[in-house]
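Late entry, evening session. Most of the bench is empty. Finally got around to the prediction I had been postponing all week. Sequence below, unchanged from the version circulated by S.P.
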Amino acid sequence: MRLVRARHAGHEFEARLEGTLLVPTDGSPKLPLHRAELLAPVQQGKIVCIGLNYFEHARELGMTVPEEPQIFFKPSSAVIGPGESIILPKASSRVDFEGELAVVIGRACRRLRPEEVPEHVLGLCCANDVTARDLQRRDGLYARAKGFDTFAPLGPWIETAYPAPDDVALQTRVNGNVRQKSRTRDMIWSPWQLVAFISECMTLLPGDVILTGTPPGIGPLAPGDRVEVSIDGVGTLSNTVAAETALKQ
């Protein structure tokens, strides 16, 4: 089952996607998908991210493979949905795409074992951990580089009938050209291991999202680009790229 958030005639609602029909959870009439705008499938909650979870990605950045998962956060204000534009901020001269598998929490949990994780997961979706690479290197930290508005595209839906996440194919394309191509079996820590690890230090709540790391092949985005993150059995998240316009006085 695919769970979505959508907008139609100024009204935002949650729905199931059944073929090409949206079935609102509030009992409203069904609506053809093409008549609505899909929004980010989650609106609030923690976005917990993992850095350097593929051996080859660590090597391409010239960084040491960590002994434990590296946790950082993105603000909920960074979230955008499918079809929305990633805005390149004036503060950065290089903004990179990072296609990732995202895990959406469905039940509150704490101190889980990896085998207990699935019963607390709502589903999977596609994500793009957009990063101002020059600011990341300058700051030595992740908060500013990864926290700009529009730097957390999610979607296009939450797939609840998801494939086993420890071996699914992930691909990122920019303007139709394949830039990242990998499988989650190449992760250092599997998605369920990551959720269990994070739950050791913090309570995970319904609607929280775990970004599980990006494979090698990251690269810069430019105004006018279209970036697509595809995960087999989950879906394809597509976003355009635009330059930041002059700030209003």
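Two things to note before I forget:
The mean pLDDT is 95.
The two ends are 46 Å apart (CA to CA).
Will write this up properly tomorrow.
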